[in-house]
Amino acid sequence: MNLLPPSLRMRVAIIGGGFSGAAVAWHLAQLHRPERISISVIEPRPLLGGGLAYSSEEPSHRVNVPAVRMSMAPDDPQHFARWLTGSGELEHDPDAIWKNGDAFPRRRVFGRYVAEHLAPYLSSGLVRHLEGPAIRVTRETDGAGWTVHTSSGPVAADIVVLAATHPRPGVPNALASLTEAPGFIADPYASAALSGIGPDASVLIVGSGLTSADMVAELDRRGHRGRILTLSRHGLRSRGHPDVRGEPFGDFASAPAMTALGLLRTIRAMLAAARAANVNWQSVFDQLRLQGPVLWAALAPPERARLVRQLRVFWDVHRFRIAPQVAAVLDRRHATGTFATIAARLVASNDEDGSLAVSFQRRGQTRIETARFDAVINTTGPAHGQALQLNPALNSLAEGGLIRTDQYGLGIETSLDSRAIGLDGEAVATLLVAGPLARGTFGELMGLPEVARHAQAVAVEIAKLLATLPSAQAIGANAAHRSLAS
User: Considering the entire predicted model, what is its pTM?
Assistant: First the structure.
């Protein structure tokens, strides 16, 4: 490919090089006139595409969706499955193939897949990887450009895409007194986070979703045989996959519910219809997932807020299923009496000379219990509502009035074309949001298929900007005073 000099290309800076940011870069790189674009991806990790979800080297951490349903290319659902077949990874991991023939490879394998597909564009120079965090983002006084300040220096851009990773889990107030305790693990995905937990240690896991299940599977692989208790407000464990995968079932979109309660009634009716037709419940939720954007759009903001507040936890445990290999570990541990899940709220905690005392109140009871553990693992989920405070680049944009938290506390408020909404209520034309941070506008944006489709849509919006922003020649003419880094 004959690329124009950097000063003659439209400069796109993508903050975050996990799956969301890498997928946006990949789709952009495949545009019909890629020579007009210079793409910089700002990501601290050494490889693009892995992010928090797909960088883990832990063998027990597996993708929670069958490989045939994972793809960077929404128009080619078998994209990853074909790559996986020819990658050689399955030969080294026979446990990846489940009894029904579905493949659930290790998460790092999917990260490798994304990285390999970006590699040609990195080699050509069309995509650059700036290895380091974005510290601050500023807008030029004339509003025509941006500067992303990184640990490696400033990066000038005409368009900025916010594709930041999930924030770390917030530590519940009741566990604040344990933050300095050796046995407390605030970030379960930190390198070797569980390596200090002995085989007979008693472990409390706060949270009972996907991350919690990962921790049980990892502890088990490491030879742990002590007792594990998971605790969450509702005590709901993530559900598993069916033995036989079916097609999506039901219709929620032709007459979408206008209220959260109405949607709940419709779901229950579809589940009853599925049972009568001998169809598994997972097929109903697969249809819900596909038609989610229509359902979310049909709800007025107060009903969306009610849905998030009252039904989100039930949606999460049915929608975000655990890999069958992980489910098998949980079932085996439960059968042997070394793993249990309870519904309770945390009350207080204390570090008593290495023994972590945690007080909690079971749901429906008044008595407060106190139990002691050798280790406490925090898996309460990403602190999406605090993303603008915890991420310095996002915080700088928020302080500048260029972004704001959506009214549901899920991430960044955007327009329907993925532009960030500023404090003045206006969309910022050259500031786009990709991935889960935009789910307050689009609804379901946590699963990989939805994130891949959104990344593609963001790339299309950037392509449209190429026709409306100043031409490459005009940008080049002003490069001397506009470009801080190419």
Answer: 0.87
